[in-house]
Amino acid sequence: MMEKHQTNIAVVILNWSGKHFLEKFLTTLTKNTDKTAEIWIVDNNSTDNSLEYLSENYKTIKTIKLDKNYGFAGGYNRGLAQIDSKYYLLLNSDIEVPENWLQPLYELMENNSDIAVCGPKILSYEQKTHFEYAGAAGGYIDRFGYPFCKGRIFDTCEQDNSQYDEMSDCFWVSGAALMIRSEIFNKAGGFDDDFFAHQEEIDLCWRVQNLGYRIVCEPKSYIYHVGGGTLPKSNPFKTYLNFRNNLFLIEKNMPKFSRQKVLISRFFLDHVAAFRMILQGNFKEYFAVFKAYLHFWFNCRKMSKKRKLFKPKSPKYLKGFYSKSIVFDYYLKNKKKFSDLNG
Prior knowledge:
Blueprint: E1 5-15, H1 19-32, E2 37-43, H2 50-57, E3 62-65, H3 71-80, E4 83-91, E5 95-96, H4 103-111, E6 115-124, E7 139-142, E8 147-149, E9 152-153, E10 156-157, E11 168-169, E12 177-181, H5 182-187, H6 200-210, E13 214-225, H7 236-253, H8 256-279, H9 283-310, E14 321-322, H10 326-332
Parallel strand pairs: 1-2, 1-4, 2-3, 6-13, 7-14
Antiparallel strand pairs: 4-12, 5-13, 6-12, 7-8, 9-10, 11-13
């Protein structure tokens, strides 16, 4: 068994053939990260000489090489198991960090023992005046299991005018930049390997809330995210993962009395979305949705068994739950901004 390494804060980047991002952003990260924190790269068996680049240029950065690509969930699970730290700060490789980005998150966690997960405000690297799709100012979820963010609903990313600059509880924070107590990460069971990538952080945050802890966005800390570094936004495999994993999310975390109603509603809503893809000529995207549902039904029983391990509460008792339909509000009521939503 590999020896664990002890530290207070471990900033951990999961890398898969992302040498171009390491070349672009690591210098700023090492410069603007508190020297008491250790920076780690967990490599998902890259094929682009990422580790050779690190050994030649960043000798203080610690590395862990995995034997194959385990995805976001499996890669982090295996990497973090080898790092002994009070806090894990998971950070995507395609992120630019400004000065003092880490300190507000660390102070928040140190001063609030009931907060298990926190994250910064996430802005777009390409358009720094606007929120970025992946997490904006904290994540939420509606009654049908659709995730959205404060500052980003579906494809509408708001301009950041400091309108969401107060620290607030939310349902989830983006895995692009997520700080979590290592003790709680392990207590909650870590990420679910079956998700592979996408929405695994929502699943984790849901379980963490069920354990009685808070999830918080701290806008005093902010970062700039490129987004789509591993899979571009319009990618059939990404569509497949998002639809399948969202169904996994519902089956695993919603209690029985509401889960069946939600899944029936989602079957209708998702097929409306799939039909829209056909009308737009996106046939690969349509088949990705079909494949997602097929694989969900094959794995439904497996997800049900996982739900019984954590005995989930009704999401209406959790922070960041939106009791209405974000689809209805966005498309039919034209509520494009978070501030337009009621409740």
